[in-house]
Design goal:
The complex is a heterotrimer of chains A (268), B (302) and C (398). Chain A is mostly helical and 268 residues long. In chain A, 77% of the residues lie in helices and 0% in strands. In chain C, the strands form three sheets. In chain C, strands 3, 4, 5, 6, 9, 10, 11, 12, 13, 14, 15 and 16 form a twelve-stranded mixed β-sheet that branches. Chain A: This is ABC transporter permease.
């Protein structure tokens, strides 16, 4: 499409403004991690590296990151398996209720987190308690996996649609059984979609707080929960900013990775 | 390609495997059944089951004396919900906030996504996308608190606007809409960008060659083709806003949304039945919304 | 701390379960409160430690250095007693009660709205204070209170206390207020800059004000309101809402609001006032002439504790002068042990928090969750319970 020079410039200016909107608060978070003022007053009354020193030997924060990584990895793993299975079923078969299945996958992310949270939390208490299983990391993983399935499902579905079935048929014609075909043909082709979907699922889980609040056992502190409790303690709030600043910087890695992989997936 | 050659492994496992493979090959229904079993068990039994159990709870009541849930059927919670004027006000306010956030997100996301996907140099596109997605990894609460500082009476916004003689909105619903827009913006940009990227440039060129102006191409060619992506993005922004109760607590001044009512009743009053009844409001709103956007094919664009 | 306070304020059921639980065998009826107490004997003597102890506590009560290396009273306890501490942080009083019901825990730091429920439910045993040497030094004003004892039998060891004060920006509020009328009847002078605690329990603050502002309502206890008294308190809060800028629930939020000037007058905790002052903002605080609401926690021992000896050791440890001082300073509350005041790192800490000021705390009505039976002993009236308080709070905020 031929856009006038003016339109291009306007779009560029708008995008620059949009990025500024996105980055000013993030910049403020990083700045506040050096702000001598405990309640992040503006403009900063002075700069200090004290919070960074505090944060570095904060065992609670490290543990929370670890818990979040575990929860994210667990939820992503479950979602990868389940999401791929549904995507195959919906893309490769025609059956009654096919639309309902795809709707069902979307539902957990489409319904507000507080609904999913109390529904699951309540169900866990009723069903698991008699079995002697209390709320814990396990229930967090189950809760997260439920709404993460959709990201895998959509990525895999899109990939399957573009892939067609020709290569798999060729593989079968050459004598490969379904397992071999999956192992050597389908899976390598799906890998970028799985990675892209998996990373998005991981991101969703990593920053989730509402469903987590209702499904986590008292001893389970994911990073968002840790932030929630510590942001409101006077001596800890600046430390939270440090952790957030570190996350912002580190987040470039997975996002870059996801982008490369999904870029690869959409490359023609 | 040696991997594709059928390998015969000695012993029982191989033959078992072959038999299973052969069965799967011959019986597509078995394949389908196996593929659907685990996910459906999870989504139907665990998730839908939990949702229905919650809905059922809404028809029970909490005994105010013992604090135990009394499992006798009653419409009381829904009656309270329906007759309480305050709940109607809050529900409408919540839908308005969610709609406002969605419209604002779209207004910001579309031009940005368009620039990123169609105008920017191809080698810059991945970096722009990274730039837009990075905030997703910064902690939600920390971002909201950053906004609280920006919007404060002596905060960054008033500090910057001061010389111009203007003032920021302060804490309240406007601030809530603004912050929610900020939080969910990437969820709107991502699907629109993907949708636009998929749109072949040649199609847009053809439209131009056939005499359509920029606006007409946008309206008649681009808009219909990326509409499912927009609807998909709106599903995120609308639902995430409707379920939020934390942002409004931090920047919403004295305001409250439907999520707060649910949270207060379960967290504070331990009145699960009433909380469940209140929670049906966003569920119904979302189901209507899903039904509406479903026709566009949005559900496959998330 | 925030979580803890929310917990105290939020916990819903409180005494609701009381009569239901009780149970018949050898129970006695607590006078004026109308619930039965199971007959559980207190431990007679202390044996050797069991090697570990499982406790349920509020965030900040059992610090092991993981949040701040210098804040650690768990490891020294383990070293001294050989009892390994397994701490579980509860978010709300409800959660605390639920955790205690599992029977897996030996001790709990219960707030005023959970303690009586635990007693009536038979989850906790009376505490033999003779086995807790440091109990002798606990302020008299905290001993044998309605929320930690039954008929003079102690059910726990007091941990600390605090009041909900009135705070204002002295550079924006011309005359220093000495009455809650500043935020209720005269709030319009600071329209949009009044702040209040965001919890249904705040209704009690309005009731407390009405006790003296409208004596003909006959309010005796701000947690025991009949429908008429309750409606009056709710009406007052609805009227106040017009002047409220925001309700606060965590203290980072309030510190920041006072510092920035978004809030200039409203309720506060002493620790917040200190933080605001530390941020070089001029504020004044007062315990208004009407008195104030407040909170207090109690350490209790499970009736079926698997590690009772270690639990007793923990109770004694947590109220020992040095540790009690550490907890109080980390948490921002008045310590329970009178000797703790000599151990605080900030020598004026106890003065600032009015730790030894019994006259001060005699004006404080400590948080108790309202139930249908009036807590003030009235038998001819039915009181409004906490579930209704919660719904009214939604309505007040609108």
């Amino acid at each position: 499409m031929t856009l006038s020079r003016g339109a291009r410039l306007a779009l560029r200016a708008f995008t620059a403004l949009g990025l500024a909107f996105v980055y000013v608060p993030l910049f403020l978070v990083v700045l506040n991690s050096f702000n001598a003022d405990r309640s992040f007053g503006w403009p900063p009354s002075g700069l200090t590296t004290a919070w960074w020193a505090h944060a570095l030997d904060n065992e609670g924060a490290r543990q929370a990151v670890l818990t979040s990584l575990k929860a994210g990895a667990g939820a992503t793993a479950v979602a990868l398996v389940l999401g791929t299975m549904v995507a195959f079923a919906v893309q490769r078969f025609r059956f009654f209720g096919r639309d309902t299945v795809s709707l069902l996958v979307v539902l957990p992310i489409a319904l507000p987190g507080i609904v999913t949270g109390i529904a699951l939390g309540n169900a866990f208490q009723v069903v698991l308690k008699p079995l002697g299983i209390g709320l814990g990391l396990f229930t967090v993983i189950v809760g997260h996996a439920t709404f993460c399935i959709v990201t895998i499902y959509n990525n895999v579905l899109a990939r399957l649609r573009r892939m067609g079935t020709a290569v798999e048929e060729a593989s079968a014609d050459l004598g490969a059984d379904p397992f071999q075909t999956f192992r050597y043909v389908t899976f390598p082709l799906l890998r970028p979609a799985l990675l892209a979907g998996g990373l998005l699922a991981f991101a969703l889980s990593f920053d989730e707080i509402i469903v987590t609040t209702f499904t986590a056992g008292p001893g389970v502190t994911t990073l968002p929960i840790w932030i929630f409790t510590n942001l409101f303690r006077p001596n800890q709030a600046p430390v939270v900013n440090v952790v957030a600043a570190v996350l912002i910087v580190l987040s470039v890695v997975p996002v870059w990775l996801a982008q490369r992989l999904s870029g690869e997936a959409t490359a023609h | 390609m040696s991997g594709l050659a059928p390998t015969t492994l000695p012993g029982r496992p191989a033959s078992l495997r072959r038999r299973a493979a052969a069965l799967l090959h011959r019986r597509p229904l078995v394949r389908l059944g196996l593929l659907l079993s685990a996910p459906m068990l999870w989504l139907v039994v665990a998730y839908l089951g939990a949702l229905f159990a919650m809905l059922l709870t809404a028809f029970w009541s909490t005994d105010t004396f013992t604090g135990e849930v009394d499992r006798t059927f009653t419409w009381q919670n829904f009656q309270d919900l329906w007759t309480g004027e305050v709940y109607r006000t809050i529900a409408l306010r919540s839908v308005a906030v969610a709609a406002g956030v969605t419209v604002l997100c779209l207004a910001i996301a579309f031009p940005m996504a368009f620039y990123m996907a169609k105008v920017a140099r191809p080698r810059w596109r991945p970096y722009l996308l990274i730039a837009v997605l990075t905030p997703l990894w910064a902690a939600y609460l920390v971002k909201v608190y950053a906004w609280r500082v920006i919007l404060a009476d002596d905060g960054l916004l008033n500090w910057a606007l001061g010389p111009l003689g203007a003032r920021g909105p302060g804490y309240g619903l406007t601030a809530t809409v603004l912050v929610l827009t900020y939080l969910w913006l990437p969820y709107m940009i991502l699907p629109i960008y993907t949708g636009l990227e998929r749109l072949p440039d040649s199609l847009l060129d053809a439209s131009g060659d056939l005499g359509a102006g920029t606006l007409r191409t946008l309206r008649r060619v681009v808009a219909p083709m990326v509409f499912p992506s927009i609807a998909a993005g709106s599903l995120f922004t609308f639902s995430l806003s409707l379920g939020d109760y934390i942002t409004v607590k931090i920047v919403g001044g004295r305001g409250q949304l439907i999520g707060n009512v649910v949270y207060d009743n379960i967290g504070a009053a331990n009145d699960l039945p009433f909380a469940a009844a209140v929670a049906t409001v966003p569920v119904v709103v979302m189901l209507v919304y899903i039904a509406a956007v479903r026709r566009t094919g949005a559900l496959e664009e998330l | 701390m925030q979580t803890k306070r929310l917990g105290v304020a939020f916990a819903a059921l409180s005494l609701l379960a009381l009569s239901a639980c009780g149970g018949g065998d050898g129970s006695s009826t607590a006078s004026g409160q109308g619930f039965k107490v199971p007959n559980i004997p207190a431990q007679k003597a202390l044996g050797a430690g069991e090697g570990e102890v499982n406790i349920v506590n509020w965030a900040g009560y059992a610090e092991d250095g993981s949040n701040d290396k210098s804040v650690d009273w768990v490891h020294p306890f383990e070293k001294q007693t050989g009892c390994k501490v397994n701490s579980k942080v509860a978010g709300t009083s409800d959660e605390m009660v639920a955790l205690m019901k599992t029977g897996e825990y030996d001790a709990v730091s219960a707030s005023g709205d959970a303690s009586l429920r635990l007693i009536a439910g038979g989850q906790v045993a009376p505490v033999n204070t003779a086995l807790v040497p440091n109990y002798a030094d606990v302020f008299a004003g905290l001993k044998n209170k309605p929320w930690n004892s039954i008929k003079g039998v102690a059910y726990g060891i007091p941990h600390g206390r605090g009041a909900n004060l009135l705070m204002w920006r002295s550079d924006k509020v011309a005359t220093a207020p000495d009455s809650w009328s500043a935020v209720f009847d005269q709030g319009s002078a600071y329209k949009g800059h009044v702040t209040a605690y965001d919890s249904p329990i705040y209704i009690a603050d309005a009731a407390l004000y009405l006790m003296s502002a409208k004596p003909d309502l006959g309010i005796k206890d701000p947690y025991a309101l009949d429908q008429k008294q309750f409606d009056a308190a709710v009406a007052l809060l609805k009227q106040q809402k017009a002047n409220v800028g925001e309700y606060w629930s965590d203290y980072t939020k309030e510190v920041q609001a006072f510092k920035s000037g978004d809030s200039v007058i409203g309720t506060t905790w002493q620790v917040i006032a200190n933080l605001v002052a530390a941020e070089k903002t001029k504020v004044g605080t007062v315990l208004p002439k009407e008195g104030a609401t407040g909170w207090s926690d109690t350490w209790m021992v499970a009736a079926k504790a698997e590690h009772p000896n270690c639990a007793y050791k923990w109770l004694d440890w947590i109220v020992s002068p040095k540790v009690n001082a550490q907890v109080a300073e980390w948490f921002g509350e008045a310590p329970a042990n009178s000797k703790a005041c000599a151990e605080t790192s900030d020598k004026s800490f106890c003065t600032t928090f009015h730790a030894a000021d019994e006259a001060y705390f005699s004006k404080v009505h400590f948080w108790t969750t309202p139930i249908a039976q009036c807590l003030d002993g009235r038998t001819d009236a039915k009181c409004v319970d906490y579930a209704q308080w919660t719904r009214a709070w939604t309505e007040i905020k609108g």
